[in-house]
Amino acid sequence: MIQPLFNWRTGLAIIAIAIVSGTIFYSQYLAGKIAMDERQRVEQWVEAGKLLIHDSTGISDKLVSIIIAENKTIPIIVTDENGRILDHVNLDSALAQDKGYVQQKVKEFRSQNQPIEWVNPLKSGEKNIYYYGHTSLLNQVRNYPLVQLLIVSLFIIITITALTTSFRSSQNQVWAGMAKETAHQLGTPLSSIQGWVEMLKENPDNEKIVQEMEKDVNRLKLVSDRFGKIGSSPQLEPHDIVTQVASMVEYMRKRAAGKVQLVFNTNNIEKLNVKISPPLFDWVIENLLKNALDAMEGKGNITIYLQQNATSVIIDITDTGKGIARQNIRKVFKPGFTTKKRGWGLGLSLSKRIIEQYHKGQLFVKDSEVGKGTTFRIVLIK
Question: What are phi and psi of 263, to 5 degrees?
């Protein structure tokens, strides 16, 4: 299910890069053509000015006037060789009254285009320098790739968001459907087994067998109840989190093999009510403790530390096991990921779903170091 989504993202990224790259090259080509055209128009404007000075017959006045008047877009500033402003056209008339503004424009134009120089023979060889800037059309063409990149990026973000939402919705439906079907399939044989247990109770000689069978039946009922609640929206009710965690710690302590020590540090909190679904919350604690026990390999310490602040209840489960490699920390909650020889890799994924989707809290790896251990943190809304 994850691979197709990855392919969609890769395909969209390649298409976006191709579109933007093509647009950038073409825009640069157009910008170059426009820049050449503008320089030719400025050169014509300068030559028209020269002709106006040299032609004393007045024959070319009309042609010169047309050339000069046609320039309504290219901003030009004329200075002498000492930088004194002689003339300017197509600047903001209000701002151009400020000499500082015009001087700033000279610096800007000098950085944009190579100025055109002309020696005025009527003024003892005085040199006039023509600085010109970019037109709004040229700026728009050069900025167009950025605008297009923004639009394409927005399109990709919306598309990926829609695909991800659709993917998660389908995944949630699969999870809920599997959970409901599992609970349903367990229900029929479980009812039958309960009937057989009741029949066995009629014979006093079966007392020990009945006790053990009832434990297993109760365990199966708990599993069925958990799957049933995953397949629907569980009702959250206030429960004492201290008692809830303590009972699961005691349950796992009896099943801890070897020299594994489980310590529950309540931080002097005697009672703390939090809205939870007890069967599902117990399942999370059980999964985290089982993972810790598997990482211990028969010896070490597991510490469950409870604390609270103004808005949250925090439960840290720390083991002194083999730890998690840094490259695997982001993968541990993905369905199917496991480093064990046996297992489906669903425990942590289920636990994260239970805490974050049903309890609106957080479950994450607080820290981990290979060879030293791992700390998982649960954050619940107080």
Answer: -125, 130
